[in-house]
Design a protein that fits this description.
Number of strands: 12
Helix content: 10-25%
Strand content: 15-25%
Structural class: alpha+beta
Radius of gyration: 21 Å
Largest sheet: 8 strands, mixed
Strand order of the largest sheet: 1-8-9-6-11-12-4-3
Number of helices: 4
Distance between the termini: 12 Å
Shape: globular
């Protein structure tokens, strides 16, 4: 049963992000399984090859938009996102690894996977492909791409060919086969793409990141998130919070406590509802710093979880 809803909300990783060394083991030449646990690293650096990427066809796209304010892409599911990769000197034999990860630190160790509905065998996107690739949210349209797994964290490894004559970049197209809003998948948690430049020994030579939201209305969601950031910045300028050591932080969100009694059919549905409530409060605790206020209510959810 989804490993008892991710081992009762994976408490040990709520506010801790650890980077551990990766170790590769080849499975069948195209798909790799790695037993060692690790947390994806998100810090950017250009490296000795000045690794860069840029968005292509920004003005002509109808299915995705880019927000310079948020430095984030909003895109429809199953639509193509073209990216141009550049490195100097443009040597042959390098590769780009693309991984989708959660942006918030408390979810850093959780793998990003497709929801149950989009992984269903009757889904048209799941026909005539390796069943082990079905969980991948991100697909690269380069047929030489290899799909890998490291302790359930999924990534796509694509060889970098040298740019064609007269060009300074290599074009790669990506598709996303699940939405951020899907409850049993990304579950409304913010995500981003991590691009790492690697050599044949899988040594990381550079790293870049791109926040991405897969949604039904990219323009609407872009305006909404930009407005939220603008309101947050305006409120920050208007008030200055002085918090003494040892005192509780003044609540900055709705702290009314509601007692909800529900009859839910099915243990898995019950656990999913409890986990969703837990994640919402954990996210508010992280954003507001009011861990002591939320902790008793989060602990109460855990006590009611079988």
């Amino acid at each position: 049963m989804k490993e008892d809803i991710d081992q009762k909300y994976n408490l040990t990783q709520q506010y801790i992000s650890e980077g551990k060394q990766m170790k590769q083991e080849e499975d069948d030449g195209q798909y790799f399984q790695e037993p060692e646990t690790y947390t994806p690293v998100r810090e950017e650096f250009p490296g000795c090859y000045n690794f860069q990427f840029s968005l292509a066809n920004q003005d002509s796209s109808k299915h995705w938009v880019y927000s310079p304010t948020l430095r984030k892409v909003f895109i429809n599911m199953e639509e193509t996102l073209p990216l141009r990769f550049k490195w100097e000197p443009a040597l042959d034999g390098l590769r780009v690894r693309t991984a989708m990860v959660f942006s918030l630190d408390q979810y850093a160790s959780d793998p990003v996977r497709r929801c149950h509905n989009h992984m269903a065998t009757n889904n048209t996107n799941n026909r005539d492909i390796d069943p082990r690739l079905i969980r991948h949210v991100v697909r690269c349209l380069d047929h030489s791409s290899m799909y890998e797994e490291n302790n359930e964290h999924l990534s796509v490894l694509t060889p970098l060919r040298t740019p064609q004559a007269g060009s300074h970049y290599v074009l790669m197209n990506f598709k996303f086969l699940c939405k951020n809003s899907c409850p049993s998948g990304m579950n409304r948690r913010p995500t981003e793409l991590i691009f790492t430049l690697e050599d044949a020994r899988k040594q990381v030579l550079g790293r870049r990141r791109l926040p991405v939201r897969v949604c039904s209305c990219p323009k609407r969601d872009k305006k909404k998130e930009e407005a939220e950031v603008g309101d947050s910045q305006a409120n920050t300028k208007k008030r200055k919070l002085c918090i003494s050591v040892g005192k509780k932080m003044t609540p900055s969100c709705d702290t009314h406590v509601f007692n909800v009694q529900l009859n839910i059919i099915g243990k898995e549905n019950y656990l999913a509802v409890m986990k969703y409530a837990y994640d919402i409060m954990a996210g508010q605790a992280t954003r507001t710093g009011q861990f002591e206020f939320f902790k008793p209510y989060m602990d109460d959810i855990l006590r009611k979880t079988p």
